[in-house]
Design a protein that fits this description.
By secondary structure, the protein is an alpha/beta fold. The protein contains nine helices and eight strands. Helices cover 28% and strands 16% of the residues. Strands 1-2-4-3-5-6-7-8 form an eight-stranded mixed beta sheet, sandwiched between helices.
Amino acid sequence: MSKPIKDRPVAEDGCYYMTENEIRAFQKMAVPSPFDHAAIKNKSLNIQYGSLPEQLLDVYMPEASEGPLPVVFYVHGGGWTMGSKTEGFLGGIIGLIDHGYAVISVDYRLAPKAVFPEFIFDVKTAVRWARAHAHAYNFDPSRFGMAGDSAGGHITLMMGFTANRPEYAGEKYGWPGFSDELEAICDMYGPSMLDASGDELFRESGVPRLSREKPGEPAFFGAVFGTTAASLLGLISPISYVHKNIPPTLILQGVKDGVVAYQHSTLLAEKIAGICGESKVKLVLYEDRNHADYGFNTKENSDVIAAYFDHYLK
């Protein structure tokens, strides 16, 4: 556990919690303004990528480019229950077009209307759509990456770790026969261990957390995924799917994250390094960043992602 926090009491569960002022500041930060795409001239919006009307995506392209472009998909956060392709931290990804990438922002069906793995089906269908339409949009189908934040980070990890597995493909929604494989992925503070006890992780770290867990229920995952059984939540956890052939993985995580304890990222990085070798994963820890921190919604953030993806997609 980290050093005691001055003038902040420890709760009966052994954890620290954010103050009311900190919660208000967090709520303001975690719900950014909708992305304003007016300045991006080369774009195609609200393309239906699957058989359902809510399966939509936006394509953003560099103003001028030569040859087929590498593609980075963006998967928004929002606890699997809210958000859209224009309401997440797209501002921290869109700068990739200045590095010569096409950026595709994806809408997926939300819980509780959609249940796992339907949002995985949606995003995989979007990847297959892009491969099926690579010639029409000047995409290079051999150079696909993906980045997601929070719940979108979880989806991104699941996408990378379950490539071409038919039980997660959802091919009935479109473009069967095309691969959903990704050549590199970036997870930003996504939960990787849904069966883990938040109480234990936050007691260990001493980081002030946003809210309390209900007794016997790991965080709020039970309400989202329809189960509180640790064995089932483990099957929805990306850390359970690490294998030797996963794509290179960049993990960006704030140490002061009060929603997804930073150990989700450190333990995932350790497991990837142990199974795949240290070259397969890069973990970047930001000491002063909270969950959905402003720092992840900046050009500097897209520069960090571009520098990593350049090794694998260019």
